[in-house]
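Before relying on records like the one below, remember that each one covers exactly one chain. Contacts with other chains, cofactors or solvent are not represented anywhere in the record.
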Amino acid sequence: MKPFVLLVGRDIRLSLRQGGAVVLAVAFFVLAIILFPLGVGPELEILRRISAGVVWVAALLAALLSLDRLFQADYEDGSLDLLTLGPLPLELLVVAKCTAHWITTGLPLIIAAPILALLLNMEIAGLLTLVGAMALGTPTLSLIGAIGAGLTVGIRRGGVLLTILVLPLYIPILIFGVAAIDGSISGLGARPHLLILGGLFLGSLALTPWATAAALRLNLN
């Protein structure tokens, strides 16, 4: 596991050193949520009804912003070729990069989400569920997004293609993430939706590294 941990640490250090992608994702998340009350109006009841959907849509789009650099930077400077020749299997390399992506992008979104949800008048009962749902959903966003990043690596201006490929696959996470919060607020319970999000995460963890590794081998050969 030492090469795995070293690779995760390397990617985190590079992301923090560059800073642009991390700051951009969090800034977009914050600004998108702040702008909604200005566009919809100050009616608290309307904001309460749409709060769960707004937070999840903003988080989904923020996660997309940094996906195109998941493998692209290493591909451009030749590091990806060296990493594939290293002791770490390509599938574990994908998991390591997704872990680093989640720590630098998904984790800040989870921390900021409850505070921003209060600005949208979300009920207190939904805040804990929001954190739990995003803790299950954001890693899945990184894992699924890695497939699109692997398919588009080496393609100039592949960000648009990446969005088209990945966005439809994000829809189930969006649906069950919002449904979990709404169920918690309405008293119907969030457990079934959280279990589905957990199943999506485990399924993605089992399948997406193989699919992403196959896409990378196709582009590197």
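Residues 2-220 form one domain.
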